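Notes from hallway chat w/ T.B., transcribed later so I don't forget. T.B. wanted the structure written out for a chain they're using in a teaching module, and asked if we could keep both sequence and structure tokens in one place. Agreed to drop them here.
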Amino acid sequence: MTREEPDPRVRPGRPADADRIRELQSHLRQPSPDLLEYGLAVGAARVSVADGRVVGYLLPVDAPNQPGVHLAELVVAPGFRREGRARGLLRAAIADADGPVTLQAHPDNDAALALYESLGFEVVERRPDAYADGDALALRLDPDA
């Protein structure tokens, strides 16, 4: 994977962003409010900003006993999609990762799957009934491979 310039619209999440990030979480298929609160408390979230307003976020979660990171939540507000914001958030998380990067996606989310594939993620597992409306695909990227 080639190293590219960081997206200038992406920055670490701040305590002042918490309410807006919580609003954005409502766009997720299966949000985890408790996990988000933990991520906000430890400063793990990354945000994408437009005109000073948070319009997207990514929540990476480190595993304490193994290298790598799991990208638990990624969302961009509908009016700001198809602008490269999710890609910018993902690239920031990949650049920061110490080891493999994993995430989960719905098999019908063609746009997300195309984005993940373009960044080098590969499907490693199908998880039956992981979502209330069906299966999930587990994807993995080994940035150092």
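Follow-up for T.B.: Residues 85-96 form the longest helix (12 residues). Might be a good example for the class.
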